[in-house]
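Weekly puzzle thread! Below is a chain. First person to post its structure in token form gets bragging rights.
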Amino acid sequence: MNQDLWKYSGNDLIKFYKSRKLSPVDVVFSVLEQIKKYNNKLKAFVHINEEIIEKEAKASESRWFKGNPLGLIDGVPISIKDLLITKDYPTRRGSFIESLPTKSDKDAPVVKKILEQGGIVLGKTATPEFGHKGTTQSKRYGATLNPWDPELNSGGSSGGSACAVASGMGPLSIGTDGGGSVRIPCSFCGLFGHKPTFGKVPAYPISPFGTVANIGPISRTVADGGLLMNVIAKPDNDDWYSLPDDKVNYNEFNLNDVKNLKIGVFKYWGMKNFFNHISLENSIDVVYENIFKELKKAGLQLTFDSKIIWPNNPADIFKIMWYVGAANLSKKIDKEEFSKIDENFLKFIDEGNKFSVFDFLAAEARRAENATYLSNLFEKFDVLIGPTMPVLPLECDDVIPKNYESKDLFSWTPFTYPFNLTKHPSSTINCGFSSSGLPIGIQVVAPHYEDKRCFQVSAYLEKVFSITNKWPKNI
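Winning reply:
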């Protein structure tokens, strides 16, 4: 039995609880020790209450001792991104703002479902202010670092969640993804992460950025992501967008069937047409080419010569949605508090105030055209794959890669937000490492409602490359 209990996956923990080989109390103690050891340096967590955590662990231990667990994840430690409301913890959103409520008398639907199934909430993880960028730094909490190289950033905006899982501070976390905020840090930190079909996982209150925003699992393994997805992908009365329960088990599929899928490979996801400067960093390009050589050897039906030709520039649409959301959120913040806000978010607010309701509606129409185009592309392919990120992790305080041609915050994350706009499910899975030892993710995109296909293909990639047992060298 491994004495480093913090290393066990969620699925392993459930197996060991059932056989009485492990206790949730011992596991939580091990995870808390890991948090005490690394969190001051890495800054993954912003709120922890050991008394609550230990109380939940003892209750779980008692249920397992009686052979009466609450549900699928009883006793599994899970952290929550600090954009989601929680009864037991404040919700600061990476901000000093006090005019927005920081306390709640209810849990967000995903938190409620986790607790109903016996999950142990470890606390709240770091986010940039209001989750507005692809790196995790805030005036309130500083920079969240990358466990693979603490000189670098973990990515964002679910950087605290990804950092926590990658460094053994709990096997699972809940992130949000409004433009890549699960997939970016998971790619940077060597993890599996999933952005669901919009509505598959319920949200309350709805994000300030509306229907581009999603909630999804972050984990080291696809099976752990599936375990958490089985808990949270259920409708909730608080979310009028939430889809009916399709009773899908995200861990039940035949990996051999992946060889029968028609897979389109897209190096730039159609975004080269709009950003001439986009190219894969050399270290990523080398690994990317090797990844697909291995997948061809494995017998996958890969098509390389197709292109995505978006009817409308996803970046232009996304900026309108994002900027208007920021401007609308600002109406709820006292004007005297504006001096506390991140300067980049203030720019978003200023830009958002320039758009009219007609601009917003026109952007929604163009968004729909892109979604329809992509849905029609799935008449040709069963699944689409390509790189998650064109760049390696940024230096810890940077918000744009050094020497990058564009100073636009969205210019270096062009492969993720198109699928927030179209609402298609997409995952990222670590498939290799750069020459400097940094993780490189592959993104998997499936038709609407076919989230399980993302898990199936990701699990196949995970099996081919067999690197989930590799931990950061200093952890």
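Puzzle host: Confirmed. Bonus trivia for everyone else. The chain has 13 helices and 15 strands.
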